[in-house]
Amino acid sequence: MNFDLTEEQKLIKDMVREFAENEIAPSASERDEEERFDRGLMFDKLGELGLTGIVFPEEYGGAGADYISYAIAVEELSRVCASTGVTLSAHLSLGSNPIYLFGTETQKQKFLTPMAKGEKMGAFGLTEPAAGSDAGGTKTTARREGDSWILNGTKIFITNAGEAEIYVVMARTDKDAQKHHGISAFIVEKGTPGFSFGKKEKKMGIRSSPTMELVFENCQIPADNMLGKEGEGFKVAMKTLDGGRIGIAAQALGIAQGALEAAVNYAKERKQFDNPIASFQGIMFQLADMACMVESARLLVYQAAYKASNGQSYTQASAMAKLVASETAMKVSTQAVQVLGGYGYTREFPVERMMRDAKITEIYEGTSEIQRLVIGTNLTR
Amino acid sequence: MKILVCIKQVPDMESRFKVDSAGTWYDTTELVWRMNEYDEYGVEQAVQLKEQTGGDLTVLCIGPDRVKETMKKALAMGCDRGAHVNDPDYATRDPFEIGAIIAEYASDKGFDVIFTGMQSQDRGSAQVGVLVSELLGIPAVTTIVDFVLEGSTVNVKRELEGGIKAKVSVTLPALFTCQLGLNTPRYPTLPNIMKAKKKELLSIPVQDLLKVAFRLETVSMQLPEKKGGGLVLEGDAGELADKLITILKEKTGVLAK
């Protein structure tokens, strides 16, 4: 048992923190205000640093690092800008990882390699108006015609949509099969005729990360773009989400850490009744509770990442990490606004943004309710 | 071309410092360590020179085992190999001893270019670089803010007082001490961080290289006295003027009593 980061993990943490503080943080508030995604800053630069393919082998353009390094990278980015954190998480865990896990050698060379190098961005299309937590409710269809598949339907709430070049999309290939069995996964490239983007969502938080609809109208893709076997799309989706939960858990952890630090710094500076408010137990005890929650979440996140790196089953661990980290992010950021009082409620300070950003972590890539369902089902089966 | 860059591991300057029990240095427990900021510019310049010339680049650092972490960053930025001079007592050594250790290491290696930071952020003597050059019998150019290699000549700009820059040309071999702003130190990329662990990092016991005695001794160290807080006067303009005149008369010699 060892709780120390390895030398590489420490170097990665230092490097990403320095990069995040120097390059990402200065524009975080402005990008949030303007709901503006900055591709050069929030994706291309991550590619130059080797973050976009952090966990994939070198032969596919990756860095060959472990999942703890990945969690640390998302955490450090999210500590200053949750939108940048989710851009990396959606690209790597949701867009790229299913191709790494289920792709053929040709698909990996063609799609994964440019994604890992940061030349192409990835996204993942599962959610539909009638299929969210119930992935089996997928209505988007794929019909075989000769050497092609023809896709029809709409995906909603897709992170990185519009910006990404490569989309992993779930569609029903067998109408008659039982709910989960007739779904298959496909790789769809931006620019394919019949594939367009619908409305851009106006969100409460992560406003610098684009969220849009994917619209498929007789979109014809090569038969070779099926990912995994026909009818195994549900398996692809569930495995992908297991990994994705580590990314979102790390994002939530980063938000919580950022909010904690903002609260501590403020409490040490702000004077009331001639003393820093941090010297009042009413505030100090709140900070202590926040720090304990953040550290507990961190241990769960790193544990899930450790299991993922060491070939152990991590469905349960990643569900626990995601549940605890996201609820920690919500509680700690809300508490941070309270510690900052009136200032915390203004957009002059980053904690109100962190509080708005935190909420989504309890919803996307499996709501807190779904995480409890996963954990509870594993416990009681 | 053979290049050496010397770095020092220093505490994060945001740390809360305490004087140690001997009263001659700061307490090193519970500190977060990083590369001396001046040395980051040295490493970047050394890596650029290596990339330009296809040269061979060694990074040297003196200190206990923990300094290897900082050396890994230099390796991840592009240095080829590390020479770690294992010295648990490095912090108590004077600049002459440190300079002599480096000069002894470099004496039989034939380095064409040696970079050091202009000074360290903790001791700040700014002596080590020039002492090394003197002991090796090569020229030193200090406080450089620009570095251009042309053939076997290096043209540099030095920063003087008041922002004035001086152009200096020097024939190699030579030593350069680097000022902040010399370049933009790169972030070590992920693939390079992963490769750094496979690079050679040789540890040398300090006894093998230290052949001189110290010349300076730190007698004591203390934290600066806390300055009193400012005084905020309140009232309308007339009252403020009266209060200010009273204070100036009573507490200073500016006005006659």
From TrEMBL, chain A:
Coiled coil: none annotated. Residues 123-219 form the Acyl-CoA oxidase/dehydrogenase middle domain. Its EC number is 1.3.8.10. Residues 231-379 form the Acyl-CoA dehydrogenase/oxidase C-terminal domain. SUPFAM superfamilies: Acyl-CoA dehydrogenase C-terminal domain-like, Acyl-CoA dehydrogenase NM domain-like. Its cofactor is FAD. The keyword Iron does not apply. Signal peptide: none annotated. Keywords: FAD, Flavoprotein, Oxidoreductase. The keyword Heme does not apply. GO terms for molecular function: acyl-CoA dehydrogenase activity; flavin adenine dinucleotide binding. PROSITE patterns: ACYL_COA_DH_1, ACYL_COA_DH_2. It is an enzyme of class 1 (oxidoreductase). Residues 6-119 form the Acyl-CoA dehydrogenase/oxidase N-terminal domain. Belongs to the acyl-CoA dehydrogenase family. PANTHER family: ACYL-COA DEHYDROGENASE. Homotetramer. This is Cyclohex-1-ene-1-carbonyl-CoA dehydrogenase. It comes from Desulfopila aestuarii DSM 18488.
TrEMBL record, chain B:
SUPFAM superfamilies: Adenine nucleotide alpha hydrolases-like. Residues 23-213 form the Electron transfer flavoprotein alpha/beta-subunit N-terminal domain. This is Electron transfer flavoprotein subunit beta. The keyword Protease does not apply. InterPro entries: ETF_a/b_N, ETF_b, ETF_beta_N, Rossmann-like_a/b/a_fold. PANTHER family: ELECTRON TRANSFER FLAVOPROTEIN BETA-SUBUNIT (PTHR21294), ELECTRON TRANSFER FLAVOPROTEIN SUBUNIT BETA (PTHR21294:SF8). Keywords: Electron transport, Transport. It comes from Desulfopila aestuarii DSM 18488. Belongs to the ETF beta-subunit/FixA family. GO terms for molecular function: electron transfer activity. The keyword Electron transport applies.
